[in-house]
Amino acid sequence: MKKVLIVSYSQTGQLSEVTSSLSEPLRCKEIEIHHKIIKPKKEYPFPWSFFEFMDCFPESVYLDPCEIEEIEDSNDYDLVIISYQVWFLSPSIPITSFLKSKFAKEKLKDKPVITVIACRNMWVMAQEKMKSLLSDVNAKLIDNIVLIDQGSSLATFITTPRWMLTGRRNAFWKIFPKAGVDEKEIKNASRFGFAIKEALENNLEKEQRSICSGLKAANVDEKLIKSEQIGTKSFMIWGKLIRKIGKAGELKRRPFIALYTVFLILIIMTVVPINMIVQTIIRKISKEKILKQKAFYEMPSGNDDFRMKDFAKNE
User: Fold this and answer.
1) Are the C-beta atoms of 272 and 234 separated by less than 8 Å?
2) For 167-211, how does the pLDDT look when each residue is reduced to its tens digit (9 = 90+)?
3) Of 91, 155, 193, 306, which has the fewest Cβ atoms less than 10 A away?
4) What is the pTM assigned to this prediction?
5) Which residues are within 8 A (CB) of 184 and not within 5 positions of it... i.e. 6 or more apart?
């Protein structure tokens, strides 16, 4: 009997759907699943209000934990799956809090871990922070699975905030798709579950290397790598300032959050377009270097599809 620990935190319910689709093939008599849903003692709202959302960014980028309900469990696990949202190019605060908990330090030590992300198309810096958090508890990251919101970068720049701040997810104006990951993509996430099940049956998780490679697990948009790096630096600088002004939720932080929001909008409208042009030129000049960078961030699972045919019958 193999034991699998699934840890997740979802506000909208979408990540729960992804986790359910992926884990469905594992629900068999040979595998025992324990699903732990992280519960902050002070709940984060959905939909968000503007200031509640922006007030989270300093603590998100600095990986400051919140208080979460304790998890009690005496099991020893063969594999751990962590499903998480991306907040401000970082793992969500509840998931960060879990990874800094005593439970995580005990249960994840020397264990193979698979991370699962459902978000907009900017997740690279969040996963780099996730790697660091897993390293801190001596866990071994063997796979990263990423499902991206449907629509272009421009479209999701509108649809995702609309969903977060109003709760409205529907398509509109004939040019903006439904917010979030396409339902077909969520359904097809079961291919990873079948691959994981096969690996567990053959004790491949003990080798602590990728068991979801060849299944188009993680695709990095190389055009956005530099934007993520610049965005992370901006978040760190302003986040440090706002953390010094006050604690999360304190009203005295609001003027500075408003100021940063204005600054951010101006940057998006002026610097970002120029940077995109510059980066397009750089990518053409340094194509090989950029492709190596893309491949690095897509590891350990990669974006190859050589095993898709093995699981096509399951999709």
Assistant:
1) no
2) 999 999 989 999 999 999 999 999 999 999 999 999 999 999 999
3) 306
4) 0.94
5) none
